[in-house]
Amino acid sequence: MDMLQVSVWRGAEVGGYRTYEVPRQESQSVLDVVTYIQRYIDPTLSYRFACRVGMCGACAMTVNGVARWTCRTHVSKVVKGNAIQIAPLANLPVVKDLVTDMRGFFDKWARALGRFVSNATRKDDFAKVASDSPERIAANAGIECIGCGVCYASCDVVSWNPDYLGPAALNRAWTLVNDVRDGARRERLAAVAGDAGCHACHTHMSCSERCPKDITPTASIAGLKRAVATAALKGEL
Amino acid sequence: MSSAGQGYAAVSDAAPGSAAKFETWLWIAQRASAAVLALCVLVHLATIIYAVHHGLTGAAILARTRGNVGALAFYALYVLAIAVHAPIGLRALCQEWLGWRNNALNWVIGALALALFIFGLRAGAAVFLA
């Protein structure tokens, strides 16, 4: 039987790679490999997953240097010879082994005012949003994000500036800026402007390249730059 | 704008509006100056290539620039665009590569912008008055 040489990060911020031999199987995902190690070789290996079918985003890890959903990554797609290297997501503190602390990532969604703030009351009628309106189309392009952190782990600007809100939080802000039912546009544009916000993006597009949902956060961030600039020119920032 | 939205912003730790405004204006200034520079650099390069191809001497060039208000106005605009554009980019580099993010940086960058503008204008005036 073919064996994979799987190098896995063990430890927390301080740690090292340990190599495991895992039997190669047909249609094997990287998550299958990690699960095999924990079940049959070393039960102390910590990793995170939930749905196993690309819906939850919990199993994102760094595979051969690239952030990916391990459940949706076939071994055949990433294996080099018979070797694979698996590490926790970059740009996030490591709790243990392959598990990262995502609090900072989600705190930035809050900082970017990533929460819907209704401009209506329960007495108002339902909002009518035409599915072909420009705002709805712009929101649609970014709305499928499930917060897996792959874009955030892939972003160079996050690695340079730990305060940078990052592609996911800014993409979320952009979907809300385009939500005609939202009443916090001005506050949100102020929250996403500046050195830690949309203006820090270098348009390297690693986020867009690696997003498993094929979202283009770079375009959302460009949209925010335009919206913030327009608001500043109108004296509304 | 609803009161609900303002209430939410008040309890958030979002960047203060003044910082957001300042950064946004810097961004607008850098984009606008880039647009001016794109044109100015082309004209400047074309001028150099013309001068070299025609074998113009220093004296011949000075004869064309002396008292030439158009050339002076063009280079004043060029210098202004550089003085706006380059320091803002340098500021971003200092922030990202050196982690220098305090107010002292803004003063240093402001001084650099002023120096670029003054020395650039002095060069422009020199060939105008030569």
Task: Output the CATH homologous superfamily of the largest domain in chain A.
Answer: Alpha-helical ferredoxin
The topology string of helices and strands of chain B comes to HHHHH
- Most residues in contact: chain pair: A-B, 33 and 27 residues
Named CATH topology of chain B:
3 helical TM bundles of succinate and fumarate reductases
Shape of chain A: elongated
Strand element count of chain B: 0
Query: Mean pLDDT of chain A, nearest integer?
Result: 96
CA-based gyration radius of chain A: 20 Å
Q: Supply the number of helical segments of chain B.
A: 5
Shape of chain B: elongated
Low-confidence stretches of chain B: 1-16
Q: What's the overall average pLDDT of chain B, rounded?
A: 87
Overall tally of structural domains of chain B: 1
Q: Count of DSSP helices of chain A?
A: 10
Tell me the series of helices and strands of chain A, N- to C-terminal: EEHEEHEEEHHHHHHHH
Structural Rg of chain B: 21 Å
Major beta sheet summary of chain A: 5 strands, mixed
Using DSSP, what is the number of strands of chain A? 7
Q: What's the story with the biggest beta sheet of chain B?
A: none
Q: Percentage of helical residues of chain B?
A: over 70%
